[in-house]
Design goal:
Elements: E1 9-15, E2 20-25, E3 36-40, H1 44-47, E4 58-61, H2 72-112, H3 123-151, H4 156-160, H5 169-215, H6 221-264, H7 267-270
Antiparallel strand pairs: 1-2, 2-3, 3-4
Helix pairs in contact: 3-6, 5-6
Domain Dynein regulatory complex subunit 7 C-terminal: 167-271
Coiled coil: 76-151
Subcellular location: Cytoplasm, Cytoskeleton
């Protein structure tokens, strides 16, 4: 069922500083004026967990002649809805501000440390650059897959505990299982540590945003700038943790398999029996 023109909001204005909400409804057929409704938001201290309605904080104009004034319950519901819309609008504005701040940061970084070596309009050199880039990516991938063997001999601590250098097949099998079990636990502990840092950083960002909402009207320009600077740093750290966690999860399987392959061909576990 279509709304009446006098109930269908055409424009809404959130006067943040004045703590007012101004609504203008659509023109009804044959009317030269439109209904309006103004609200003065109650102080934060009076809102609490549940919004209270004071008829003295609202006024309006009814374009329809002879129509009954709106019921207080309807006005209360309208005010509650507009406060939610205001909060959502503020949230979207802050997100855009954060995006703009991130664009500015990236722009400054690109200006300070330019990475463009070959012009994108130089087709021949640019093809060679792409080829070299793909080769470097492949080399990095192969290095990550081999880093278990290259960086650490995970078997050394287990071999050091043995008094007899001659290892039976049963002992060799146990060493493999112990080493793989401990490595799996190490991967799990690292993932949990990054996850805990991610959750703590998320909670910190939410706390900062809640604090900002509560003290928005009392902040100076400098305090607000510091807030957004700290918030952007926290979001950047959160993004870094997310990338670390994703990379760790992507590499855990290949690392575990690489260690298993390494242990299956380790001379200390295969030459003595």
């Amino acid at each position: 069922m279509a709304k009446k023109a006098s109930d269908d909001i055409a424009t809404r204005e959130f006067a943040i500083i004045d703590k007012e909400i101004h609504l203008k409804f659509h023109y009804d057929k044959g009317k030269v004026t439109a209904s309006t409704r103004d609200f003065i938001k109650p102080p934060m201290a009076e809102m609490g967990d549940r919004l209270t309605f004071n008829p003295e904080l609202t006024s309006g104009y009814q374009a329809e002649i002879g129509v009954k004034p709106p019921r207080q319950l309807n006005l209360f519901n309208l005010l509650e809805q507009q406060i939610k819309e205001e909060e959502e609008s503020l949230k979207q504005v802050r997100e855009i501000e954060d995006q703009v701040a991130e664009f500015v940061r990236l722009r400054d970084l690109e200006r300070a440390v330019p990475k463009l070596v070959v012009s994108i309009f130089n087709r021949e050199q640019n093809k060679e650059y792409k080829k070299g880039m793909l080769e470097r990516e492949q080399q990095q991938k192969e290095h990550r897959e081999r880093e278990v063997e290259e960086e650490t001999d995970f078997l050394s601590p287990y071999l050091a505990k043995l008094s007899n250098k001659l290892i039976s097949e049963a002992v060799a099998q146990k060493l493999r299982m112990d080493c793989l079990r401990d490595f799996k636990q190490l991967l799990l502990d690292r993932a949990n540590d990054i996850q805990h840092q991610f959750e703590a950083c998320t909670a910190e960002i939410q706390h900062k945003q809640q604090w900002y909402t509560q003290v928005l009207d009392t902040l100076t320009l400098l305090e607000e700038e510091n807030y957004f600077k700290e918030l952007n740093n926290a979001k950047f750290h959160l993004h870094t943790l997310e990338m670390r966690l994703t990379r760790h999860r992507d590499l855990s399987g290949p690392r575990y398999q690489a260690l298993a392959n390494y242990l299956s061909t380790h001379p200390a576990l295969s030459e003595n029996y």
